[in-house]
DNA sequence: GCGTGGTATCGATAGATGTCAATATGTAAT
DNA sequence: ATTACATATTGACATCTATCGATACCACGC
């Protein structure tokens, strides 16, 4: 594992290693997509806090952001999760 | 995903979400086992720092500690890594 | 028991992080 | 343009964390 690869995987892991963000990922995976407007209530966090967590996940490459009218919708990027799996299975 | 399950997975993710600990896991996975005595040099960190990181990994259930004479040896607990995989593949 | 060497814990410190209130920015309808 | 509402950014704060030096705690051989 190169130093760059370690750093990249750490970005993914840090993004997931928070209860709010893990629940976000789980919800969006299960639903297929989610509107930011529903998330503060669903997570019992303020709107700025949710916005912050969404940004972390997008910057880690784990979520895609799509603007629909005034609403922001988010999807999981599965290939980014697979990068995680590759580290801990049959690999060097 | 229950709240307890989220918290448990977050413990695993937090444990892995550090470059030193990720390299530790990778090294021990590849070698099968590792002696604590070799790790400060291998990771370019002080002995207390490495000891701290090993403790975090053991407490997350990711490593087993085995005392052999004066030396401490560590193994990966693969079932704990599989718990991670279960979250992000075919699951609820 | 005593000394030696490996490992863990303590204390301190600098930097990162989660949270929210306040505010700014964006988007669309009127 | 103006209003309304969805989202992002800023600023501040408390908490957590990675790190190391100093020190304590083992396990063994003598």
How would you state the average pLDDT of chain A, rounded?
Answer: 94
- Specify the oligomeric state: homodimer
* Major protein interface: A-B, 24 and 24 residues
Order of helices and strands of chain A: HHEHHEEH
Radius of gyration of chain A: 14 Å
**How would you sum up the major sheet of chain A?**
3 strands, antiparallel
Count of helix runs of chain A: 5
SSE class of chain A: alpha+beta
Q: What helical percentage do the residues of chain A reach?
A: 55-70%
List unreliable stretches of 5+ residues of chain A.
Answer: none
Form type of chain A: elongated
Question: Looking across the biggest beta sheet of chain A, what order are the strands in?
Answer: 1-3-2
The counted number of beta strands of chain A is 3
How far apart the termini of chain A lie comes to 7 Å
> What is the percentage of strand-forming residues of chain A?
15-25%
Secondary structure layout plus pairing:
The structure is a homodimer of 92-residue chains.
Chain A: H1 3-16, H2 19-31, E1 34-35, H3 39-43, H4 47-59, E2 63-68, E3 71-76, H5 78-88
Antiparallel strand pairs in A: 1-3, 2-3
The first copy, chain A, binds a DNA duplex (30 and 30 nucleotides) through residues 18, 20, 36-37, 45-55, 67, 69-72.
What do you see in this structure?
- Two copies of one chain form a homodimer.
- Chain A is of the alpha+beta class and 92 residues long.
- Chain A has five helices and three strands; from the N terminus they run ααβααββα.
- Chain A has helices spanning 3-16, 19-31, 39-43, 47-59, 78-88; strands spanning 34-35, 63-68, 71-76.
- In chain A, strands 1-3-2 form a three-stranded antiparallel beta sheet.
- In chain A, 27% of the residues are buried.
- Chains A and B meet through helix 1, helix 2 and helix 5 of A and helix 1, helix 2 and helix 5 of B.
- The structure holds a DNA duplex (30 and 30 nucleotides).
